[in-house]
Write a structure and sequence with these properties.
Six copies of one chain form a homohexamer.
Chain A (H helix, E strand, L loop, with lengths): L6 E7 L3 H11 L3 E2 L8 E2 L4 E7 H9 L5 E5 H7 L4 E5 L10 E8 L14 E4 L2 H10 L5 E4 L14 E6 L3 H5 L2 E10 L1 E5 L1 H5 L1 H21 L1 E9 L3 H7 L7 E4 L5 E9 L3 H10 L3 E7 L2 E3 L1
Helix pairs in contact in A: 1-7, 2-3
Chain lengths: ~290, ~290, ~290, ~290, ~290, ~290
């Protein structure tokens, strides 16, 4: 390696890859993942990217092969790695909530709590975490690694499973019943502890975190501009959510002011009719690319 | 049904479906139409959606199976239904104009006005409306229901047709000549009369109408910001269309003001060169998501 | 031709076609290129479009068959045409740089400068330019027209090639070594000299050039709004690039001002962390459609 | 029309179109249906094709606009047309069985036989047939034309439906219960009665029928060749289905014969192991294009 | 090069490429053209392939860079190359006929024979051939190289064109009129004269030609097997085309024989009904992969 | 379970799934794998299918959850399962050879034999087999489970890998060097030992094996028919491979015989030219669907 400062960054390969690259683009970095290469290029000479499976990310960050990376909290726990949590990243309010790892059994099975599974076989992709969970409760079970399609295994190939779920619909479709939630998980931006102690790397990592969060925040929010006569200003301000105070600027006409504010996108359909009723005119919604409050 | 207030809303199935769902998304409601289901979900617990063919929408709204729905004015007339017209919706200035239902005959046929068709066979999808039209003129014709491909039927399978057209290009391609326009039609947001008399449903329907129109208005318009010295302000204002007066705000430099206005997108290419010639600087166009004036 | 003023405009057929049509749309003109037709329609009754190969564009503009057109500087030179250069157009900062025409030979060949190629065979699509280049240096070579795949010809089918390249990666993949750059080229908006001397056509051409450049400029830039207390104003202004002075407007609170400015998109990821550190709040980035400074 | 003999043939537009064109190709006629044209070309100068909706086919064949056509038996009945049934065509044993038109009601409805529906509303695409069916049983019902998605209408938009089904899976998915089968239907090759009385047209129609059936027969059958010693011949013949007696030819070795036969494809997996057990050798299965026994 | 015998074979790059590779596969050679490489692999260690534009093929075969290759007769003539014609290849009877190079002018132009074009401009991709053609007739014309879309150039950009056509439909669509056919052309398998004088290369080239033609012949033909009683044998034989005499073999039953023959696929639909009428039974058509008579 | 005899059959989920289903279809069984279901239907009431990952197949067959299944020999070894090997299946001669599991290191690494890796980290998907391999050689190594992309890990994330390869091209592309082949593997049809001891299940399994092999054999072979005069018979027979003796049948003309034989497809291109040279005529190649010799 040369003297040049470089941050080695792990991008999750697989289901999160495209969403991650899209998030970086919105945040200001273009990553080019061409075909089969696992070393995508990025338009920042201070960063080197590598595609790594989410399951292995924490291990390689802990060992220092990577300075930082994105992975799920679940896989940090599975690997019991000692890393720095820089920030959590909920990619998009609309499409991405926390996932849950749950213990599920066949709908018509006699199992209703973890203790009922003593002596049974449990299939899961999260073997170590599951073993520790049951060991912590002193329940003897056999935990088998599942290469996929875990939710179709009970009752023929396993008695119960520990599986990830967002809405539970796949479990229901396979006629499984959740009897316990073992863990909630969301995407984490993690760093190697030594790397994060290095001043240059810490600043680079923190800037990335700031911009990624700025891009995420912009997705669920919009800009709103409107004009209002001073007589109606209080009524209009009363309609707006208290969180973000709007920017009020004086217009040439001394009786009128312009408001410019940021609003949760999901509130717009309720707020605009009320703004209009309260006397606002020239109401305009415009899209945002980044929001850093 | 529980006490919970719910608006039953009909979404047109078929050619308008995707455009309607896209319009609702721009207006602030996400509709998820998954695969084969005719009951798409919507991210508003106060609304229940059903996909219904545009041809049948007015019938079911009139009968009260649906509180409101979107359909063409043509099909309201065909079914002679008694419904409330909430608002017309021209989805997008660029791609969507009023359609016309026209009476068309082969280019080289001897028919030149409706009366010439006495005794002839007319194929159409709009059977009842067509029958009433000719009955009103006391012209005896045979009207046959056409299951599709109406414009290829003359002269072999029919003497004339009553068919919908936007630009007439499909009629010309089939060597047909328009001899009369029977009706113009555009998309209507209609409501059941009893539903619209209910205060809660009326407010919900009106909010939907306001936001749908706000989203439609934003499609053909853009935001424009510019700076101008006070000496040039009148010249610059003279270039802008009179319709929407711009927001003028004072800059720190007392000799300069900032203008912020909304403009028809189609005018921008003519207006910007004139603004620059009139002394405006820092001219910036930005996209809008909703416009409620 | 009628008295109606019409500008005959050549659109480059082929690899640049889609990007050109997209650029015109961003600039305010919609071009509809349907299937096989070489005469796309445009939503401006004062313009008639024709799709013409970039290689032939300059020839037809020079002869007056077209009033104006877009083509590469390289093909203007190849054809040695006498046309007016209105403006160069770098479609997008991100994806489009100047291309180079280079003289390349096999990696392991004994040729290291143009003079080494005396008596050799050179394959190229740019036959006339290449002949003049070597004639100007008094180096006798055989120049053969290449119908394509020029870079795979050495050493079996040619001794050297003159080929266009952006990044050199295709040349490297074919194990070729560049020994000289013969020309740099970018897209030019060119006009027939007589047409450009006509007042009406000149104004039309110049408006097109202004709007095309306005659309190009907007692609690499974004809008930035923020609030800042007057105490921090100088620090915040110090962070912003000097080029474009921001619009500063007074807020209702006399201690605060709002800043609105335009920024190179590639700088945002560095500037926002510094703005926040300097005391800015409510930092919002929004997209731009056109920028005419 | 000239003196040239031409058969006007209706090809069903819509869901059967591609399968029909594929069937004709296997039978020896190539039909080219290009884009939007309703008059596909065919490589037989004695035939002119027209794409016609299956629902309208029988009407136009009866009226003599077409000499012959393919449509479902159901639509012949719906239109009560008087046409010649040339042959039924079950396109492929694997994918195409007779369809049924059934009377279906919501699973949890109190309706269990047609009589229970007195006074109720029935939605169907097959309005006339349904009206006659209930009139024949003296059960008063309201029959409404359904533009599509009939199976989602009960119970909200209709009390019962008359709908087409192959396997019943779509009805089950919509929680409907079949209470009566009104009709079975399969594809028919029909002819106008006058056309079929014309000697030239009859021969042309019969040749088409022969070859279409020859192509259909070939789809579910395969050729089988094998060698067998005369000592084992009876045992081997005993394994083969009795229907088609095999061609037995003498080999050079007087102790051996070769068998060549046609077999239902679905039987092959059972027959080959038995043939081998019975002493056959060199068993070879080969595909067939047409079978006319 | 080692001592190993290798045939350097040119495969036409571009519109013929996929059809050529498919033809070689049917003939028994698999060619793998991966992505961007111009040197496809082939499953025959005695052959090395290179993708070469059809326009350049004859030049490189003549110069000996390639031993053999496939290209159109037109480009052999354009380049005036001296090569061995091994065989012509009409890829498939159905989709591939001889193409024609024609002289075409605008429908409403005053030009009706080549002589009318004296002094005019002619655009063509086949510059040298066209120049020689007009020189041979002592008609002075200006011939310009056309980079493509030649048929849209008249009358605006050229007075006439020399262009390739199969059916003339593209010319008609551009309102052009053919006034002379200059040349007919089909695909040729050509060889370098020295290579063809080498015994090993000649045998390799001839085997390729035999198998390519065997695969082409199989495409338009089918196998036909049937049984017939000896009493009907003459009648049945009378129905079969005289060209290929069938194989007649004796069945076990002395009164019956089996016929096995090859037939033009396009005749089958006429022959089978006649065979059945003449007393044949068990008529079976089966597909062929190669036919070498 | 009812008394009905049923064979529980595991189909490999993933990369082999489509090829397996295609193979079963060629063998005579249609498997319908719809969307997300892991229990595809099959047109044989005596079989129940389940999709199971190849990695887990042997485990579930050994435990008796499945009677039989298809998986790689590698995964049988990895799991050290005790199952019956019914037959190996090389899906297709053309596209499917035995795969190898190899030990690979970076090209420029100092490792040249397994022993050199003492103390090093080895990444692999085949953890248990690899551990046993090195334990058997008394070489202490750290074996880490790799979730994928194993070949990009050296040298950054591992010192060596044990990875599967067909042609080695992926290893070369990642600049890795093979230092040892640990195992060869191909697809196996395996059965539970108890199931295979059951007479009914054994017969069912053996029939499946016979037909699967019959379908595989047909893929690489073709049928060949030809006529030959008795004078040339020996010469023609001399050209044919000795393996399969052809069926010789007497033609009506006593001087001629017909030959019908099976041939390796890859030999055809060499054999046909020789057959023709030896006096054969009417040489026809036809495709085969199954071959059971």
């Amino acid at each position: 390696m040369s003297d040049k400062k470089v941050l080695k960054l792990g991008i999750p390969k697989g289901s999160l890859q495209d969403a991650t690259i899209a998030l970086f683009e919105r945040a200001g970095w273009r990553i080019y993942a061409s075909g089969r290469s696992y070393f995508p290029t990025i338009d920042d000479t201070e960063i080197e990217c590598m595609l790594v499976r989410a399951q292995e990310m924490a291990r390689y960050v802990e060992q220092g092969h990577l300075d930082a990376g994105l992975t799920g909290h679940d896989w940090v726990l599975e690997n019991q790695t000692d890393v720095e949590y820089v920030t959590s990243l909920t990619y998009s309010k609309a499409s991405r909530q926390k996932v849950k790892w749950v213990l599920a059994v066949p709908e018509d099975s006699p199992f209703h709590k973890p203790e009922d599974l003593a002596g049974m076989t449990i299939a899961t992709e999260l073997v170590e975490f599951t073993k520790r969970y049951f060991a912590g409760k002193n329940i003897p079970v056999k935990v088998e690694f599942s290469w996929g399609a875990t939710e179709v295994k009970p009752p023929m190939l396993a008695d119960a499973i520990v599986e990830v779920t967002e809405t539970g619909s796949s479990l229901r479709a396979n006629r499984l019943r959740i009897i316990e939630t073992l863990m909630e998980s969301e995407t984490q931006f993690i760093a190697n502890k030594d790397s994060y102690a290095d001043a240059w790397k810490k600043e680079k990592i923190d800037s990335l975190a700031l911009m990624l969060n700025g891009a995420i925040a912009a997705q669920g929010q919009v800009g709103l501009m409107l004009n209002v006569g001073k007589a109606n200003l209080d009524a209009v301000l009363g309609v707006l959510p208290a969180l973000n105070s709007p920017t009020v600027s004086q217009l040439s006409d001394p009786e009128w002011v312009a408001l410019n504010t940021i609003l949760e996108e999901s509130l717009v359909r309720d707020v605009i009719p009320k703004l209009k009723a309260a006397g606002a005119t020239g109401i305009v919604e415009y899209p945002l690319s980044k929001v850093v409050l």
